[in-house]
Design a protein that fits this description.
It is built from ten helices and no strands. With 246 residues, it is mostly helical.
Length: 246
């Protein structure tokens, strides 16, 4: 189990460095299945924060701080109801919901890429930030809502990927804090060795991503992220449904 969790974290970190997002999409479904919905999302949130924080210095000059602010404020506000919900739902329902959210969010992201509609920047940022914050704390997956915003705004990939890093740091940290408060300080039941392996996998994934970043097609990497996330989401749905049925 630990090996599979570590592999998910490694691949998620690698995709995060290459595409700017993808850590939660890749890692969340499988980690949730292996560790349970509550512990799994907490681990994904924590690793997402660390991963993004380590990337921030590498992309600092391309971060758009004004857009970051418009996205992150509604996201942090929406985290509160999301944390309340996830700490009160039964595990199988939460897991099933995470799988559904992953697949719906991915599908919406792919469909919106064909649109020629350009939304008003500020209202779109508020809606996207709120949706992303809620999904981040409930399912560990906050990237797709921001991806939809990026497509509608015709946001250049380099600036989009850079701005997402401090965004994930703030939103992930807020998710961890609020869920800890609403669950009376509950933490993932992992021993020191497990945490060490997970952190090592995270660092290895980021290093690999740094090495491969200029050699791998970003389009191919995004396609791989989508495929892995769809498979993971489907497995999470099936596993959650079987747990409910049982």
């Amino acid at each position: 189990m630990l090996a599979l969790v570590a592999l998910s974290v490694l691949v998620g970190a690698l995709s995060q460095r290459i595409t700017g997002m993808g850590f939660a999409l890749v890692a969340s479904p499988l980690v949730v299945i292996l560790l349970g919905p509550f512990d799994g999302v907490l681990v994904v949130n924590l690793c997402g924060v660390v991963s993004a924080a380590l990337i921030v210095p590498r992309v600092w000059r391309n971060i758009e701080w004004r857009t970051f602010a418009w996205l992150v404020i509604p996201a942090v506000i929406a985290i509160v109801p999301g944390s309340l919900l996830v700490t009160r739902l039964p595990g199988p329902i939460t897991q099933l919901s995470i799988g559904v959210l992953v697949i719906v969010a991915l599908t919406a992201t792919l469909m919106i890429r064909r649109t020629t509609f350009v939304a008003a920047a500020r209202p779109a940022a508020i809606v996207a930030g709120a949706a992303s914050g809620f999904m981040n704390t409930a399912a560990g997956v906050g990237g797709p809502a921001i991806s939809i915003y990026a497509v509608m705004m015709r946001w250049p990939q380099v600036k989009f990927a850079a701005t997402l890093q401090p965004y994930f740091v703030v939103v992930g940290t807020a998710s961890l804090v609020t869920k800890s408060l609403f669950s009376d300080g509950a933490l993932p039941q992992l021993d020191a060795l497990s945490w060490l392996v997970i952190v090592a996998a995270l660092i290895v994934g980021l290093v690999l991503g740094e090495v491969l970043n200029s050699h791998v097609s970003h389009r191919a990497a995004r396609i791989a992220v989508v495929i892995i996330a769809y498979v993971g989401g489907a497995v999470a749905i099936i596993d959650g449904a079987l747990a409910l049925a049982g």
